[in-house]
Structure formats: structure tokens, C-alpha cells
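Hi R.,

Here's the chain you asked about this morning:
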Amino acid sequence: MLASLCAPKSAYDPSASADLNAYPVHSARSDFFKTTIKAELFATVVIQFAAYRLSCNRSRAPFRMLSQNLGLIVPQLPRRVGLFAILFLSLGGGARAQDAVQPIPTSVAPVSAPAINAPVIPSDATTPIAPEDSNVEIVQEPGTAGYAPQPRRFRYALQLSVRGVYDDNINISHSNPVSDFYFAIEPTVTVGFGDIFEKRENYLRLDYEPSLLIFFDHSGRDAVQHLIRIEGNHRFRRLELTLVQDVQILDGTDIGTITDASTPGARANVDVAGRSRANYFVTQVNARYGLTGKTSVSAGVHSTVHDYPDLISSQVISGNVYLNYQYSEKIGVGLGGVGGYDLVDAPNPDQTFEQANVRVTYRASGKVSLDASGGVEFRQFENDTRGQYVSPVFEIGGSYQPFDGTNFALNLTRRILNSAVLAGQDYTSTLIAVAARQRLYQRTYVGLAIGYQNADYFSTTGLSGANRSDDYYYVEPAVDVMITRYWTVGAYYLHRQDESSFDQFSFENNQVGFRTVVTF
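And here is the predicted structure, written out as C-alpha cells:
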């Protein structure tokens, strides 16, 4: 070893040194002590390496003396300095590798969540936020240590996102648009037990993302928003239980969820078409019981609350039952129904609805996935204020990954919603969203998200006058660059526009944003 250290300079190959970014996984119980030992070993190796390298130069005598004295100098340093150094290294190591924490996903994905106030077409469980959807992939050299194959009991992740955005219509108003520049500071905390990232085993996970919006010229528009998501899954021998709880405390023009970090601003509140305060609570409890190797029965209870302090609020409670059949390893089918009750603030009538649905799942070689559910909804209105309303409903989500670093995603939905601004009116919302992401040169990602939504209003009281129709679309290209494994910077442009038959709801908006994301 000494001979290799004292070899001629040309013989030393820095590329053969260990990858400092590859680190083993530490448990929460012993992380501090292991990091302390690593810090001491690291300091010893660095000192000895420097001494030997210096002693290999032509003027060896002075450096031999320095090499001998280093062993005397280091122990004489104040003990407090050594403790602070060890503590600093411990905190740094813990922030980077505690319990195999993966970066919080910031995938460039289409707007998968439906528009507001929708009775959900159920599935066995909501689509998880998979780490492979991350817009910031981990570049790992061959042979280096990866994440632990077995999940730890407690796992967590921390992320901080800061965006600087120029917005030419901060109120998405039809007349007298107001422009401004604002900062969005958005930390994200993920904690949980079990397999919270891969989601192949039992787990319980909490995501919390507060958002602080600070405007330069219009401080009255400053706002604090909160996005919370709790989800869990537990598998017994034949029974599988899932729980999802979403909470959105919003104050602005958008209705984004915690899964929309990669496409900020794409989900405008088209129905309100302006700034509003809203509190959304969505609860989903599902169960699936295996009858045989190919058949199963599933059931669920869903609740959706949309509370507008200054507008029309509503709540949807529904239940569903499905009989499922696994036709092959790749294809599964299900047949079932949904029934629910829709409570709406006066003067709107309360409503009941039923759905008859068929759903299909398709998985092919890990590159193609498709989840589709569709059927017909029958809706009745309190006191027979109007006749029964019949409409097709569907929800389709798919993804395609033809190559490593190339991803496509598709989402289509159609459902009936309550209007928060027009009394006595519902509307059918038809949404299509497409997104693509491509990795270039290992550390650069380019993405494009495109979406279209049609909102067609109808009267819930049988009175004439419900003739509003909106066509909303958005285009959002983006580019992100990995500076390190834990730090990315990027930029995006958003154009969104709504063309409404009621001019006061039409708007046009352009945003240019720069963002940086740090994962701890």
C-alpha cells in the first residue's frame, strides 16, 4: 500500500478512488455512532494520505518531519473542535442517507387528478407515487452501493423547492389583468413506516407540503397553502386494505394536489375562474378479498368535501362493489357499480346517483400500463326539480416507457361536478392530459405537458339559462438539470387559456418560472 502511495504521480489514477456519493444505509439507532467512526477513519486516512504523498516529493526531509508531527498536532486540537466536527459530519451523513430515503418524486406527469367535486370511479387502490416517476433520477456508477432491498421500519425524506415566477395575470381575470413576480417556497416532508417508497409491502405514509407565496408588488395576495396526503396499505393472507386521505387548504387560482409538483399552475380552477379560498378533503377506504386464484371481490367507501367559505360548497359520499377476474398475468377485468349521495348548499338541490361500470387493467413487461374504468351514470335531483340526467363517465390512465430515460403518460376523465359559482347548475367535465419526459446526457431532463378540459353546464332545477360552456387548455414545457444527486435546477413556461361562453369567466395567462430543488 505504501509503495502504491509513493508511486510516481503519473501512476496515480483518481478515477480508481471510491465514489464519495455511494454510501451504505444506516439505521436510525446506530447512525450517529457509525458516522462518528467513519469521520475519525476519514480524518485519519486523509492525514496519512497527505503525509505520504508529500513525503514522496523530491524534498522529502521536511515532509517526513511534517508527517511525523501530524500525529502530534492532531491529538492536541481542542476536544470541542473535534466534537463539533464529528457532529457536523454526523448531521451531513444523516441528511444524505438515513434509512435508504429516496428523493421525493417530482415527476413530469399529466394532471391525473380530476376536476373538483367529482364522484370517484373507484379502483382497488389509488395509483401510488412511485419513485421511478421521479424527474430527478439517481445516477449510480456500476458497482456502487444502492438502496437497501429490504424496507426499514421507519423511513423519511426531506425536500425543499423554491420557485421564482413571473405571472402576467395573477388573478386569471378576463379584464384588467394584473402582473407580478412572486416566490413560492415549498418544503416537503415524507415520513412513514414500512415500504413507503416501493409500495410492494405493507406501509403507512404521510406527505406534507406547505407552500408560502410571496408577491413583490401585491403583498395582499400573499398566501400560505397546505397539501397533506396520508396513505396506507396492509395485506393479509387474502384480504388487502388501503386508505388514502387528501387535504388541500388553498388560497389562489389553482387546485393542485401533492402529486402536481412537476406541473405547477396547470390545474386552474376553471369553474371559479378567479382567486378563491377553498378547503378540499378526499377520503378513500378500499378492501379487496381474494376468492380464488383468479377471482376477487372489492368494495370501497369514498367521501369528497369541497368547502368554499365564500361560494357554494358540496359533499359527495359514495360506495362501490366490484367483482374482479384476472384473465391472465397481464390483463384483469372487473364489473360493478357505484351509488352515492351529493349534498349541495342551497339553493341547489341535493342529488343521488348510480353508476354501472366496467374496468380493465393491463400490464405488459413493465413498460406499458393501463387502468381504465367506464360506464353510465344516472343522476336524480331532490324534490324532482328536474328529470333524471344520464351521462357516460370514465377514467383512463396509462404510461409507456419505451427506453430508459423516456416516459409518456396519458390521462382521460369524464364526470359530473357541482358548480361553486353558479346556483342551480352542475356541469360535465371532460379532461385529457398528456405528458412526456426525456433524459438527455444523463443529467438533463426535458418535459412537455399538454392538457384540455371541456366544461358543459346544465340546470339542476329545470329552469332555463344554464348555457355556459368552457374550453380550457394548457401547454407547459420544462427543463431540469441535475447539479448533484441532491440538487437540481430548472425552468418552465406555462400558457393556459379558457374560452367561455360567459365572457367574465374567460382568461389568458402566461407564466415563466425558475426553480431549484434540494433533497436532504
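One quick note: Residues 168 and 179 are 4 Å apart (CA to CA).

Cheers,
M.
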